[in-house]
Write a sequence for this structure.
């Protein structure tokens, strides 16, 4: 017992930025699901939802780029209450109003990995959004493993992102690494 305590005291304590870096399991936080409302959330996502990965130049990041995943559902401003119900049901994200649009946004990587991804694994999308979701999921797990902190990792994420949302925007800026 003494040897074990002595060995423990002599070990260096390592600080981790998040639980995934130390090999922790991803804790799923999907709600106690109501199959009918879950189907409604999936339906709104198929019709009005998006899985987005933004790669922007950044002076504060070591690589010079920042990778930001985002899940969103956009509706008319009049349907704000529906998006609030979705937010309350999933217990993550936020609802914002801008001009004549209301949008439910989830930008935090831990909320995407613990709530959004398990939710759509349990209640899968049926249209082209399924393909986008699967690529989005791969990118999020790559970010969790730290690939967003290296140029090569960002380059791999960029190549995956090119296949999302039917090739993306035509006016999307090309990134040269």
């Amino acid at each position: 017992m003494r040897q074990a305590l002595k060995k423990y005291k002599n070990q260096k304590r390592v600080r981790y930025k998040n639980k995934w870096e130390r090999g922790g399991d991803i804790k799923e936080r999907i709600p106690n699901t109501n199959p009918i409302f879950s189907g409604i959330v999936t339906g709104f996502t198929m019709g009005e939802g998006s899985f987005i990965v933004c790669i922007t130049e950044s002076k504060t990041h070591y690589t010079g780029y920042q990778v930001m995943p985002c899940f969103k559902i956009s509706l008319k401003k009049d349907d704000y209450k529906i998006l609030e119900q979705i937010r309350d049901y999933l217990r993550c994200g936020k609802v914002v109003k801008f001009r004549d649009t209301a949008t439910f946004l989830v930008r935090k990587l831990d909320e995407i990995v613990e709530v959004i991804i398990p939710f759509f694994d349990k209640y899968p999308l049926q249209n082209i959004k399924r393909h986008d979701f699967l690529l989005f999921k791969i990118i999020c797990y790559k970010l969790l493993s730290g690939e967003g902190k290296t140029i090569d990792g960002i380059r791999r994420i960029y190549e995956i992102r090119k296949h999302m949302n039917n090739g993306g925007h035509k006016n999307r800026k090309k990134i040269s690494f």
